[in-house]
Amino acid sequence: MKRAAERSPSILAFVSRPFDNESTVGNVEQSIVDLKDSLEREIGVLKQDMHQGFSHLNDRFDTQAARLERHAGLWQTGARWSARMDAWAEKVDAALEAKDRELAELRERLIKLERKSA
Hints:
Blueprint: H1 4-7, H2 9-16, H3 21-117
């Protein structure tokens, strides 16, 4: 495993300097400020990436919502059409049943009339 001084040149420069309280404090202060600035930049980039990602997701959800609304409209239209067809079929069945009864009654009357005349 590499030592910290071998991995980071800034640490190497910091460690190799003579120990002077003012310069050491200044270097630590500058390192902290640099770290803060670097983190702010990284967070800014991450924030921008996040906003772009959420914007993309919102666009996809909007597209999906529009498609689902169209499907719901078609489904409602189909349900209404089906209900109307059921109502129409019930009316036709009732009308055909009434006609069948009338024909049966007329047939019976005709048979009775034929018997009387015979």
